[in-house]
Amino acid sequence: MMITTREVTYVVDGLRMIAHLAQPDSPGPWPAVLIGHDGVGLEEYQRQRADDLAAHGYLALAMDYHGGEVFFDQPAAMLARVMPLLADVERMQAIGRAALDLLLAQAGVDPDRIAALGYGAGGQIVLELARTGVPFKAIAVVHPAFPDAKAEDWANVTGAFLLCTGSEDPLCTPQQVLDFGSALQEVGADWRVNIYGGAEHAFWAQPRNPDGSFAEGDAHTMTTVPGVSYHPEHTPHAWQAVLDLFGETF
């Protein structure tokens, strides 16, 4: 399917955000997906997720929560931006809400068929939206940061959850995933877990050279946080799981 893409700017959290919008070249209305990038920033991989979703018939918006910055080789600067954000639930909800409102304002969107996809910190942002009662039909998160796993906070969610992480991820461990799943189980939510054997954090992120080109192998050539490596076999597995969830839902 042919698609159309464009940048969309908006202001939230005191920053001018630059989101990536992708839509099918077919008659709407379309189901819509809100995408939250991981802590590094909105870069090529998340833009490609939006493009691939559009090719599958979804209107997809990859939000921005760094004001256009991407911290490829600046882990200290990334953490200085991300950690205070993760400590402030209202701030995360405001950032997510602004992006969701932008998505829902697009021509051709079906407001009764919305889903969310989040990576890392962007995973917690979309989970925080779900916790406020946004009626996502499906929520997929890959190595997310998690809200508190208190069952009473999730009693009103109605969508299906996909929780993914790597077996060797020190930042989003399988136990954290299962603890959050237990809260969902307690309230009778629809949830499933994928653990990818041998994968670490951000296992979808292909290493880059200092000039921005992609590097060979699975080890990152630039400074990053510990516990991050590329896993080329599991990267498509995780993406297929997301497509399967959305396909079943819509």
From TrEMBL:
Residues folding into a coiled coil are none
A molecular function annotated in GO for this UniProt entry is:
hydrolase activity
Q: Which UniProt keywords apply?
A: Hydrolase
Q: Which Pfam families match?
A: DLH
Q: Which domain of life is it from?
A: Bacteria
What InterPro entries does this protein map onto?
AB_hydrolase_fold, Dienelactn_hydro, FrsA_esterase
Q: What SUPFAM superfamilies is this protein classified in? A: alpha/beta-Hydrolases (SSF53474)
Q: What is this protein called?
A: Dienelactone hydrolase family protein
